[in-house]
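3.2 Worked example (two chains)
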Amino acid sequence: MKFILSFAGVLVAILLYVRLVPSAPINPVLPVGPQKEVNGHNSDVPPGGDGDSTTTEEEPGEGPSTSVPAARPGQTYGAAITPEGAVLMSALPTALGTRDSAQLKLTGKAQAVCQAKGCWMTLPTADGKPMRVRFRDYAFFVPKDLSGHNVVVSGWAHRSTVPKADLQHYAKDAGKSSQEIAAITQDEQQLTFMADGVLVQD
C-alpha cells in the first residue's frame, strides 16, 4: 500500500512540474512564422543572369552598399578589367553581327544612371538609342554621378524585348517626370548588356 501511495505521489509531482514549469522553445534562434524577403528598391525587378528582359526583373535582398563613392578615373566596379581589346560602342552592331548575344568588352560614355542605387546605367549605341547596362547578380553598383564619364564594360550584349513595366521603372529610377513615365505605353526592342565589371576611364 505504501508503494502505491509513493508511486502516486511521484506521478502527481511530475504532472504538476510539467504543468507549472514552462518549457523552453525547441529553437529560440529561428523566427516563427512565414518570413518575408526584403528586396531592393523595386521588388518587381529578377536577379541578373542571362540578361533576358522579357520577364520582370527582381533585385535580391540588400545587395551591396548603396553609398558608392563618387566616380574617379581608374576605379573599377565588379570584376577587375582593363581597356585592352575594348570595342567602341559605335562598332557594337558589327561586333554582335546577326547573333542574339555575344560576350564583349565595350567602351563608351555613360549617360543615364539609376539615381536610386546606381544599379544600372546606359551607354549610347551608334543610332543614339540607349543600351541599358545592368550588373550581374546585382553584385555591385556604380556611382550615381557616373553620367558623362567614359567607361569600359565587360560582359554579355543581348538583343531583347524590354517590357513596358520595366521601361517605366527605369524611367522612374532615372528621375523622369510622371508625364514622361506615362508616355511609355508599349514594350521595346533594345540592346541590353549584363556586365561583370566596369572601369571608369576618365
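3.2.1 Second chain
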Amino acid sequence: MVRLNIYIFFFLVYPFILLTNGYVPEKLHLTVYYESKCPDSKKFILEQLQPTVELLHKYVRLRLIPFGKSMSIDYGDEGFQCQHGPTECMGNLVQDCALKYMRKHNDVQRVNYVVCEMELEAGAMGNLGCVKHARLPTDDVERCVSTGEGIALQLDSEYHTNSLKPQFIPSITINGVFDQQIQESALVNLKETLCSYLKEAQPCAHYYNNKVWEYLFYSP
C-alpha cells in the first residue's frame, strides 16, 4: 500500500514540481500593521514574518506600518498617545523614519532591521543602535525623528491604519484586502497562508511536497 501511495505521489506531484521549477508568479502585496512595543507584534515578527520573508521574498512585496492602536493628538502637534505608553510612540516614530531610509533596501533587510528593534526596543528608548546596525544614515534618521518629517510619517501611518480599523494588532492584509480567516491563519503560520496564494512558487511547491511525504510516511 505504501509503494502504491509513492507511485501515486510521483504521478500527481512530480510533474507539478517540474512545471513550477523557475516559475515566478506575480508578487503578493503583504502589509503588516504593528506596534513597536506590542508583545503580539514582537511574537509575529520574530516567529512568523522574518522566516517567511526570508523564504518567500522573491514572491512578496512587503509594507510595514508601525502605528497600531496609537492616536495623534491635535494632528500630531501635541504628539501621539500609544497603547503601551510614550516609549512605544518613540519606537514607532524611529521605525517609521528608519524605514523611510530603507525604501531601496530589500524586504529581508527591512525585516531584519525591524526584528532588531522588536528584540532590543532600542528605538523606543531613543537609542539608534539598530539604525546603526542596519547601516542607515543615523544623522538623517535622528533629524527625521526630531522634526515634522517624522510626525508626517506617523500621520500617514495613522491614516492607513485607521482606514483598516484593525481590531487586533498585529494585523495583515494581502493585496490590500483584510480577511479574518486569513488573519487568524497568518498569525500561527504565515508561510502556509502565503503559500495558499503562491502554490506555483517553487518554495511553496517544495513545502507542499514535504507535507505529502509526511502524510505518506508518518500518517497512522
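3.3 Remarks
Confidence is low (pLDDT under 50) at residues 1-20.
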